[in-house]
Amino acid sequence: MYSKKFLKLIPYFLVSISINTISQIWAQNIYTIEKISPNGLITVSLTVPVDTTNNKNTQLSLRDDIPVTKKQVINVRCGHTKLKHDKSGNWLLPTTCNKVTWQVKPELSDNKPIDLANQLTLRLKKAGWILFSESSSLLRIKHSESASVLTSTNNIPLLGATSTLYGWAIPPVGTAPEFYIIGQPETQQKIIADLPVTYVIDNPQQTNWSELQALHQKTLRYFTTILSLPADLPSNEKSLLLIWLGTEAKNKQVNGAAGRRSFIANYIYERNHRISTSDNMHSLLVIAHEQFHQYADMVRYKHPVDTSVWIEESLAQYYALKSMQKALSADEFEAIKNKSLSQDQNIYFKFSEIEQQIKENNYKNYSLLYSQGPKFWYAMDQALLSSSQGKYGLDSLLPVLINSDCQNGQLPAAFVQKANEIGGNQINNLLKQYVQ
Predict the structure, then answer these.
(1) Run of H or E including 59
(2) 108/113 Cα distance (integer angstroms)
(3) Could you give the CA distance from residue 319 to residue 285 in angstroms, rounded to a whole number?
(4) Strands 195-201 and 187-192
(5) Which domain covers residue 375, as residue numbers?
(6) Are residues 141 and 283 in the same domain?
(7) How confident is the model over 176-191, as pLDDT tens digits?
(8) 34 is a domain residue
(9) What distance in Å separates the CA atoms of residue 411 and residue 428, rounded to the nearest whole number?
(10) What percent of the chain clears pLDDT 70, i.e. is strictly above it?
(11) At what angle do helices 351-359 and 309-327 cross, to 10 degrees?
């Protein structure tokens, strides 16, 4: 039996928990999927945190670190009042407003090729669900550092990658975006090297889905052997969401986009027959490329680095290629390796030059990161292996490379020092040829 003294403490304890919980909720940006119209129009709301109201200069905008190629947000309102929209793409939030609503007009993806790199919200009418892209669909409170979550009402099914107490986590601006599923797609769950993975596909009858999953799992396992996750990585930060969308072979377009813990990628199909693994090799490279980006972000948990676009993209492409050795047969790997590394040995621009072009919003030579990039890393890998009699390769130095800052489009100094200690002049010559 409880004493009267103890019983008197219970109400206060419960009130304390409630106040603490409410304070945590009020300190967050809470987004809610409120309604889906018959034609797929999505109504979204943002409950404005109490510390933001009464601020005369509060503005809403889409993420400014990811270019949006098509306008999808429409009809932004506070109650019945339509919010003013300036030329910079910002909406001014009234001081008395504590809830903003808007609508998202998804791109209808059935029967036409969609470039997934554009990160648009897509309506898959045949599949019966919506791919919701936060970078093109969620208005952010500018300069807000509050945590953000995505929820839904009216029994609208919502699936994300990282669960929290209040909904699915939304990454802060400056980090990789995230993708969500509205609806009830066919899913499968697997545990790969202690990482829970949820697989989603638009049409499992169009391809050998189990084979695609098995190939992805081999790729992910390989990445876990060369890079260790931090010991303090929370369990909910280990969950991954992989979304496959089909594209017909005749479109000759295979793309993908890596989110923070979710990513989207194409697979190839043909209407009259099932595509083989060898026909889908380019799709596998895209999947492995995006998975490397995502896994590297997990490795850097709480310790982001100041890196270069050319390093991130070319390294992901090379390790996507390396992972194919674990996923494919010897003959299949040799075929894709020769295709990636043997064609066109010219060095058109040094990577430091391409990096400067990117900073100037000039993407004319961006594709060289995916063709010239793997050739550079392969040459570095071979130079390290030959100089150390096979003892050290690029895998050995990868933790230093991805966890170190770099400047002016150059490789991290700590990485260059270690590479020079092993490879000497071979490394210096490669840096002069490709980077400096």
Answers:
(1) strand 59-61
(2) 10
(3) 9
(4) antiparallel
(5) 309-434
(6) no
(7) 899 999 999 999 999 9
(8) yes
(9) 12
(10) 89
(11) 120
